[in-house]
């Protein structure tokens, strides 16, 4: 099968070639629909988070059967369009947070619409409702994927359930936490502080040229971007540039898992598929 890796770094190339041979296509650029001028015969592609896989992009890959994103999040991929084309998508699950928390002597609880009781027993944590989690936790961390169901999962209504003086950490996607609710909770002292690796509308907040390029914004988008700048100036808020994953060890694990995902697909036993 024809395999292509996009957004690939120099140190990754030997491992990829060692696994799939010299014929694998390697490109340091992202997949950009404005630069795709011809059809590609790739059947498998691997991407990172800056490649936006839309229905228009998929039209340039008529033979595509499998997308392996080298990330835990997959909101940069149009899953409905992939499903329509019968294209499978794999991702890199995140692990280790529970072990780290327990290393600090914490009692760990979790909320998930799809609880894995076997995993909970192995790692010695308890599943609870989101409401109970918010009201009883001293530190709340967000790890879920971003989609229509998780957009503003923490919002103006339920953020008031949070125990006064708690801390919120979001290393998942900015849109999971409603910015207006977060800013209000910090100003009112409901939250003692926040650690954010992601923000709503972070693309425009991060890149002023992108802001100018778009030109027109909805009122709520402009409000969110202004609130992001407010958050950046709050003394009890720590913001990092969507970079919490970026250690050498984590990047090596991400690449290793991605190679396993592709091997699984090639052998007829795909793993880590997006549900």
Could you characterize the architecture of this molecule?
- It is a single chain.
- The strands form three sheets. Strands 2-1-3-4-5 form a five-stranded parallel sheet.
- It has two domains: 107 residues, NAD(P)-binding Rossmann-like Domain (Rossmann fold, 3-Layer(aba) Sandwich); 143 residues, Rossmann fold.
- With 275 residues, the chain is an alpha/beta fold.
- 27% of the residues are buried.
- The mean pLDDT is 90.
- The longest helix has 19 residues.
- The protein is 35% helix and 15% strand.
- Helix 2 links the parallel strand 3 and strand 4.
Helical residue percent band: 25-40%
Residue share in β-strands: 5-15%
Quaternary = single chain
Give the count of structural domains.
Answer: 2
Q: How many DSSP-defined strands?
A: 11
CATH topology of the largest domain: Rossmann fold
Overall pLDDT, averaged?
A: 90
CA-atom Rg in angstroms: 20 Å
Please give the order of strands in the largest beta sheet: 2-1-3-4-5
CATH superfamily of the largest domain: NAD(P)-binding Rossmann-like Domain
Low-confidence stretches: none
Structural class: alpha/beta
Main sheet makeup:
5 strands, parallel
InterPro entries: D-isomer_2_OHA_DH_cat_dom (IPR006139), D-isomer_DH_CS (IPR029753), D-isomer_DH_NAD-bd (IPR006140), D-LDH-like (IPR058205), NAD(P)-bd_dom_sf (IPR036291)
Keywords: NAD, Oxidoreductase
GO molecular function, one term: NAD binding
Protein name: D-isomer specific 2-hydroxyacid dehydrogenase NAD-binding protein
